[in-house]
């Protein structure tokens, strides 16, 4: 039975799978795949239409403002500025409309598979539960040591995922937050902060506003002790190995403070989970700068 025959035969839709022969089952699978593809395309078209309606709305505001500029000379300058903003915003929105949308649950499942593989690998290698972000010039490396008390390697001398030296052993990985940090750094209106307080606000704002990885955050900073705890609410990703919200925090804090950052996560009652970043306080300037 073909897909078209099955689609037209409403009775077959009501039959349980055990009453269908092999050809009917294959046809039903093909029908479901075709329906899923149609729904995905419909979803993408709906999202694109929403963007384009927004673009037309902005362009309409620009045209109306430009017309008002000719009719009302007294406020012509203001109206022309509004017209330029509306037309330019509409043009950008129209041409920057994404052509493909990835559902959140799809991204979560992809991440879940990668996180499971990395967690299994660290367990098989007998590594510790420590997660240390080692900064370099532009980003950071996620290092999982075999023993938490071992000296940390120099991130610039790490040549592969397996680190085996006389002083330490462990696994060096590209953190899930590394590429996010590159994008985050490009979107900053000023330089990356180098004090814990302002740095925490920059990163948590990006998690909520720029990347929409979480719905909200709660910051608890103890600069004297070298500790930053961020409560994460409404996370798009679960608390698993190198979760993107925790990873971006680890990378950004490591680069901003230019020192290794130990990151731990834990479940909590009022939030999805907490992310705690710890670092060694070098001198009193760390504490004073934290309040800047």
Q: What integer is the average pLDDT? A: 82
Instruction: Give the ordered list of helices and strands.
Output: HHHHHEEEEHHEEHEEH
Structural class: alpha+beta
Helical content band: 40-55%
Helical segment count: 9
Distance between the termini: 72 Å
Low-confidence stretches: none
Assembly state of the chains shown:
single chain
Beta-strand percentage?
Answer: 15-25%
- Describe the main β-sheet briefly: 8 strands, antiparallel
> Nearest-angstrom radius of gyration?
26 Å
Give the strand order of the largest sheet, numbering strands 1, 2, ... along the chain. 3-4-2-1-7-8-6-5
Label the overall shape.
Answer: flat
What does this structure look like?
The structure is a single chain. By secondary structure, this protein is an alpha+beta fold. It folds into two domains: 22-95, no CATH class; 104-292, no CATH class. It has nine helices and eight strands. It has helices at residues 3-8, 10-14, 22-71, 76-95, 104-124, 177-187, 196-210, 244-257, 284-290, and strands at residues 132-135, 140-145, 162-164, 169-173, 216-222, 227-233, 261-267, 273-278. Strand 1 (132-135) and strand 2 (140-145) form a beta hairpin. The longest helix has 50 residues, at 22-71. The chain is flat and about 80 Å long.
Map the helices and strands.
Layout: H1 3-8, H2 10-14, H3 22-71, H4 76-95, H5 104-124, E1 132-135, E2 140-145, E3 162-164, E4 169-173, H6 177-187, H7 196-210, E5 216-222, E6 227-233, H8 244-257, E7 261-267, E8 273-278, H9 284-290
Antiparallel strand pairs: 1-2, 1-7, 2-4, 3-4, 5-6, 6-8, 7-8
């Amino acid at each position: 039975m073909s897909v078209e025959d099955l689609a037209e035969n409403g009775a077959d839709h009501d039959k349980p799978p055990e009453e269908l022969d092999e050809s009917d089952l294959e046809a039903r699978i093909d029908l479901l795949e075709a329906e899923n593809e149609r729904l995905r395309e419909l979803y993408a078209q709906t999202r694109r239409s929403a963007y384009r309606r927004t673009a037309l709305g902005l362009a309409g505001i620009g045209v109306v403002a430009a017309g008002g500029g000719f009719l009302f000379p007294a406020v012509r300058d203001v109206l022309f500025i509004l017209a330029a903003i509306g037309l330019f915003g509409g043009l950008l929105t129209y041409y920057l409309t994404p052509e493909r949308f990835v559902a959140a649950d799809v991204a979560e499942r992809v991440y879940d598979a990668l996180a499971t593989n990395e967690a299994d690998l660290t367990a098989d290698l007998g590594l510790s539960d420590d997660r240390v972000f080692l900064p370099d010039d532009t980003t950071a490396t996620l290092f999982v040591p075999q023993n938490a008390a071992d000296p940390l390697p120099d991130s610039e001398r790490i040549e592969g995922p397996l680190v085996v030296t006389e002083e330490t052993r462990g696994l060096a990985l590209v953190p899930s937050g590394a590429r996010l940090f590159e994008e985050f750094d490009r979107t900053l209106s000023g330089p990356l902060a180098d004090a814990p307080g302002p740095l925490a606000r920059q990163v948590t704002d990006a998690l909520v506003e720029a990347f929409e990885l979480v719905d909200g955050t709660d910051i608890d900073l103890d600069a004297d002790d070298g500790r930053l705890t961020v409560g994460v609410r409404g996370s798009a990703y679960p608390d698993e190995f190198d979760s993107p919200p925790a990873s971006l925090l680890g990378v950004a804090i490591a680069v901003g403070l230019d020192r290794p950052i130990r990151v731990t996560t834990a479940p909590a009652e009022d939030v999805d989970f907490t992310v705690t970043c710890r670092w060694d306080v070098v001198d009193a300037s760390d504490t004073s700068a934290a309040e800047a």
